[in-house]
Recover the amino acids of this structure.
C-alpha cells in the first residue's frame, strides 16, 4: 500500500483513473463529472436565505432545483478526497499565498486575496455562461464528443494562458 | 427517500475518489495549474487528454448497448467562446478551476477558500442576476450545436470515429513528451 503514501502519481495513470471514474459515474449515477453547477446551486441556496422572493422569481434559478444533490455532494467529496490524499502523503500544506505567486509577484496576503476573489468571480460568470467548466466540459463533454465542450475547453485555456503571461511575463 | 440518499452517497463517494486522484496528480496545487497556463508544466494537459481518451472509448463501448446516457450541454458556439474566455481570465487570475478549487481547499490552500470559493459562488449569483437581460438582448444564444454530440450522429460502430480521435490525442501527448515536457 506504499503507493498510497506517494506524493505524486504519473499524470497518465491519473488520467486513466479519472476517465474510468467518469465512466463509473455515467454507469452508476447516469451523470458525468462536473463541478461548476454546484457552486451556482450553493449560491442560490445561500442567496435565498437573504431574499427568498428574489431567488424564486429569478429566471435562471427557476431552471434548476436549488437543493442538496448529487453534484453538491460531489464537490464535498472532492474536498474530503483531496484532504485524505494530502494527509496520507504528508503534502497537506496550509498556505494563504502560493509560493510561485509570493516569489514572483507579491507576498501580500491582501493582494492575493483580491486577485483570487476577482478570479473566482470571473470563473463563476464564465462557467455559467459557457454552461460548464474544466470538469463538465473539458473532461466529460469532450469525451462525449460535444462540439460546444471542445470549443469551450479551448477558450478556457486561451484565456488562462493569456492572463498567465500578462501576470508573469513571457 | 432511500433513493434520494443513495444518489447523494454516490455523489459523495465519486467525489472522494475524484478529489483523491486530483491531489495525487498534483493538480490541486497552484504551481502545477499555473505551470500549465505558463506552458512550463504539462501535467494538466496530460491528465485531461488521457481522461478524455479512456472515457471516450468507454462510452463508445457502452453507449450502443444503452448502458450510459450521452447528454451534452445546452448552448451555442458563441456562448462557449465568450463564456470560455471569461472563465479563462478567472482561471489565470485565481490559478484554480472549479473542481480544483475544491481540491485545493482539501490540500490546505487558504486562497482557494477565501478567494476562490467565495468568488466563484459570488460570480454565479452575479450571472443569475444578469441572465434575463443577457438572454433577452440576444447575447446568450442557442444554436444547432446545443445538446449536440457526435455520438448521436454516428451510425454503426462509434469506434470507427473515436479510435482515430484517440490516436490523434495520443500523438499530441507523444509530441509533448518528445519536446521535453
Amino acid at each position: 500500500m506504499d503507493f498510497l503514501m506517494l506524493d505524486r502519481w504519473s499524470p497518465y495513470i491519473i488520467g486513466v483513473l479519472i476517465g474510468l471514474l467518469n465512466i463509473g459515474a455515467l454507469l452508476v449515477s447516469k451523470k458525468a463529472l462536473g463541478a461548476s453547477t454546484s457552486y451556482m446551486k450553493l449560491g442560490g441556496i445561500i442567496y435565498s436565505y437573504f431574499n427568498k422572493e428574489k431567488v424564486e422569481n429569478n429566471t435562471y434559478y427557476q431552471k434548476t432545483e436549488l437543493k442538496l444533490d448529487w453534484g453538491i455532494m460531489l464537490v464535498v467529496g472532492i474536498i474530503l478526497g483531496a484532504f485524505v490524499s494530502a494527509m496520507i502523503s504528508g503534502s497537506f500544506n496550509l498556505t494563504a499565498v502560493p509560493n510561485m505567486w509570493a516569489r514572483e509577484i507579491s507576498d501580500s496576503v491582501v493582494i492575493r486575496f483580491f486577485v483570487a476573489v476577482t478570479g473566482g468571480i470571473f470563473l463563476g460568470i464564465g462557467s455559467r455562461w459557457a454552461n460548464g467548466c474544466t470538469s463538465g466540459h473539458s473532461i466529460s463533454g469532450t469525451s462525449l464528443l460535444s462540439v460546444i465542450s471542445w470549443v469551450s475547453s479551448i477558450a478556457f485555456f486561451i484565456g488562462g494562458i493569456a492572463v498567465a503571461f500578462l501576470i508573469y511575463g513571457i | 427517500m432511500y433513493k434520494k440518499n443513495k444518489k447523494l452517497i454516490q455523489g459523495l463517494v465519486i467525489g472522494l475518489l475524484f478529489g483523491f486522484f486530483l491531489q495525487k496528480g498534483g493538480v490541486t496545487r497552484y504551481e502545477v495549474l499555473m505551470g500549465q497556463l505558463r506552458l512550463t508544466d504539462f501535467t494538466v494537459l496530460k491528465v485531461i487528454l488521457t481522461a478524455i481518451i479512456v472515457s471516450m472509448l468507454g462510452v463508445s463501448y457502452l453507449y450502443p448497448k444503452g448502458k450510459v446516457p450521452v447528454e451534452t450541454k445546452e448552448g451555442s458556439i458563441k456562448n462557449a467562446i465568450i463564456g470560455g474566455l471569461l472563465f479563462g481570465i478567472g482561471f489565470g487570475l485565481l490559478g484554480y478551476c472549479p473542481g480544483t478549487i475544491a481540491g485545493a481547499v482539501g490540500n490546505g490552500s487558504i486562497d482557494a477558500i477565501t478567494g476562490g470559493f467565495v468568488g466563484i459562488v459570488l460570480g454565479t449569483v452575479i450571472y443569475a442576476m444578469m441572465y434575463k437581460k443577457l438572454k433577452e438582448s440576444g447575447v446568450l444564444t442557442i444554436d444547432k450545436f446545443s445538446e449536440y454530440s457526435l455520438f448521436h450522429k454516428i451510425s454503426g460502430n462509434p469506434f470507427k470515429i473515436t479510435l482515430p480521435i484517440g490516436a490523434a490525442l495520443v500523438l499530441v501527448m507523444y509530441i509533448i513528451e518528445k519536446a521535453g515536457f
About this structure: The CA atoms of residues 27 and 33 of chain B lie 6 Å apart. Chain B has a mean pLDDT of 97.
